UniProtKB/TrEMBL annotation:
TM ranges: none
Positions carrying N6-(pyridoxal phosphate)lysine: 38
Gene designation per UniProt: alr
Coiled-coil residues: none
One record GO biological process: D-alanine biosynthetic process
Cited PANTHER family: ALANINE RACEMASE, ALANINE RACEMASE, CATABOLIC-RELATED
The reaction(s) this protein catalyses: L-alanine = D-alanine
UniProt-recorded name of the protein: Alanine racemase
Domain Alanine racemase C-terminal: 243-367
Superkingdom field: Bacteria
GO terms assigned for molecular function: alanine racemase activity; pyridoxal phosphate binding
Residues where substrate binds: 136, 313
Gene Ontology cellular component annotations, sorted alphabetically: cytosol
Length: 370
């Protein structure tokens, strides 16, 4: 692999194929695969990721907001797209761009029906979200009769699926709670299906749900983090490949004497003769200030270099006193060997947050596309 010459997020499409195939191998053949590509496909690039997955015949996409779905349509993505968290102000646009809304409460249901009728739609596909314990979005189980009564009074929409979301599918201490969520969902789905004369699909599993609850795959699963190479456990991380490598380069090396300081607010003071390297990546690129002052490390020529002083907007300084390196050498923030999930731990956070934090300013470079 060529060494980085500037700050770059390398995106390994071969690893994406591997992860997709691995997750699919966990499913029964008839279970559909929805790829969650919200937040720029977890900080990578939603358009290139969606194009690649569309070639692999993924069944569905999901995004969080309408704008994200529009971007995929603008890029020529034709696979169905579920919008997980739409707002009524975007319903006309949703219909214009053939996006499929999650309907999560009475207000959204009534507004969507109103707009679908205005737009002279018939059987427009929607997905009804039920809350089974996450207490974030969704109708409650006792809303089934209300939702069905609304459906009986319009031909403008049709329910493509009923779904829910697990609160702790990755957590072995919460198996009982998760099983109760699944049972609750089954009960809701059964009640719903007996009251209408067609069969919407059912889905509840995210990546950890797919891996830990094989009996709850139902008709479709919704995978995000697994596609990007993380399985929320050491065991599963071994079966997946991180698709994103964040790399940079040493811009400049400084030699400083004892008691000289580094960076804004003079937050770091040298303990003796030291060498520091300045790297062109800062909080505007996704390295939050939490990583400053020795909390975070980067890798230079295989060795850990701690971040010294405060993280700046466009750069960090790292201590390279004991590292043999020169200006222009490659710097690894995270990659397949130094995982983003590990880098996340320095800041007490999780892979999801680190990946999605890589800002749009960072150049994306696609590798292994065939
Ligand atoms: C983000 C999201 C997912 C994907 O979860 P992963 O843990 O990344 O697989 C699935 N479903 C919903 C509703 C989501 O918001």
């Amino acid at each position: 692999m060529p060494k980085a010459k500037e700050t770059v997020l390398e995106i390994d499409l071969g690893a994406l194929t591997h992860n997709f195939n691995y997750l699919k191998s966990k499913l029964r053949p008839q279970t559909r695969f929805l790829a969650v590509v919200k937040a720029f496909a977890y900080g990578s690039d939603s358009v290139e990721i969606a194009k690649h997955l569309q070639k692999l015949n993924v069944d569905y996409f999901a995004v969080a907001y309408t704008k994200e779905g529009v971007a995929l349509r603008d890029a020529g993505i034709t696979t169905p797209i579920l919008v997980l968290h739409p707002q009524p102000t975007n319903f006309k646009l949703i219909i214009e761009r053939c996006l499929e809304p999650s309907i999560y409460n009475a207000k959204v249901l009534n507004e969507f029906i109103k707009v679908a009728e205005q737009e002279k739609q018939s059987n427009y596909p929607v997905h009804i979200k039920f809350n089974t314990g996450l207490n974030r979005l969704g109708f409650w189980g006792n809303d089934v009769d209300y939702v069905v009564s609304k459906l009986k009074h319009t031909t403008s929409i049709t329910v493509k699926s009923l779904f829910s979301h697990l609160a702790a599918s990755e957590d072995a201490n919460e198996i009982d709670f998760t099983q109760r969520q699944i049972e609750n969902f089954k009960g809701i789905a059964k009640a719903f299906k007996t009251k209408i004369d067609y069969q919407p699909w059912l889905h509840i599993c995210n990546t950890s749900g797919v891996l830990n609850y094989p009996d709850a795959h139902f008709d479709m699963v919704r995978c995000g983090i697994g596609l990007y190479g993380f399985g929320n456990s050491e065991k599963e991380d071994k079966n997946l490949k991180p698709i994103a490598n964040l790399k940079s380069v040493i811009s400049q090396i400084h030699k400083i004497e004892k008691d000289e300081t580094v960076g804004y607010n003079r937050a770091y003071k040298a303990k003796g003769f030291e060498k520091t390297a300045t790297i062109p990546i800062g909080h505007a690129d996704g390295i939050t200030r939490i990583y400053g002052n020795g909390r975070g490390y980067v890798i230079i020529n295989g060795k850990k270099a701690p971040i010294v002083g405060n993280v700046c907007m466009d750069m960090i300084m790292v201590n390279i006193t004991d590292i043999d390196c020169k200006e222009g050498d490659e710097v690894i923030i995270f990659d397949t060997d130094h995982k983003a999930s590990h880098f996340a731990q320095y800041a007490n956070t999780i892979s999801y947050e680190i990946l999605t934090a890589v800002s749009q300013r960072v150049k994306r470079l696609f590798i292994n596309s065939i």
